[in-house]
Amino acid sequence: MSSQVAAQSCLAANDWICGEYLRTRSQELTDATIQHVWITVVSVLIGLAVAFPLALLARAKPRFAGPVLGLTTLLYTIPSLAMFSLLLPVFGLSAALVVTGLVLYSLTILVRNIMAGLDAVPDEAREAARGMGYGSGRLLWEVELPLALPALMAGLRIATVSTVALTTVGALVGKGGLGNLIDDGVQTTFKAQVLTASVLCVLLAAVADLLLLGLQRLLTPWTRIRTAKPAAARAPKVKVAV
């Protein structure tokens, strides 16, 4: 009985850490987290789908590289409030407004990393593939993209973590996932809600980064082999007396 009273008193006392808040608002926290994950995943996937052809265009036609990189960088510098205000007449107060803004913010990271990964592919690998009769399309998908995966995945990880953070700004239009709870908690000085939603945002970013890191290691097994060789070379040699 005393523990129940103590738990309820943490809500009355407006403590930062309150187990009763987690118990009574679990469904609200779950719904906000699901919305946050959904907006993040959709935004990153669409951003990747847009960034990939832009990077290929900038690489194939160097005269477009400057405008593409300049435009994506300019979009990234626009404050989120201004970005959403510019998009508001087109999308209204909807999730599409938030997703579109997040897609535009992700482009500069994704385009640059895709281009950097493709540029880092050794010329010898390309020449060997062409010598084996690979066309431009097959060369891209079977040789260049696999070798560019480390840089591409690094950009994807940065864009994803950044998008997890920026999704909270969607609270401006009521579509911010955990950002909605943070915004409401700040306005009502509900400490437990602000702290819990903020911690969940951090956990989402960390989990997303770890999952993508695991996917990167799964897709690029040769990088593990490469890093294992120096360690083996440094291993001390044991002399066996005969």
Number of strands: 0
User: What multimeric state do the chains show?
Assistant: single chain
User: How many helices?
Assistant: 11
Distance between the termini: 76 Å
What value does the Rg take, in angstroms? 24 Å
Helix/strand structural class: mainly alpha
Protein described:
Helix 9 packs antiparallel against helix 10. The chain has 242 residues and is mainly alpha-helical. The model is unreliable at 231-242 (pLDDT under 50). The protein has eleven helices and no strands. The longest helix has 35 residues, at 26-60.
Summarize the structure.
This protein is mainly alpha-helical and 242 residues long.
Question: Key features?
Answer:
disordered C terminus; 242 residues; mainly alpha
Task: List the topology elements.
Elements (H helix, E strand, L loop, with lengths): L1 H11 L6 H6 L1 H35 L4 H13 L2 H12 L3 H25 L3 H9 L4 H32 L10 H11 L2 H29 L1 H13 L9
Helix pairs in contact: 3-4, 3-6, 3-8, 3-9, 4-6, 5-6, 6-8, 7-8, 8-10, 9-10
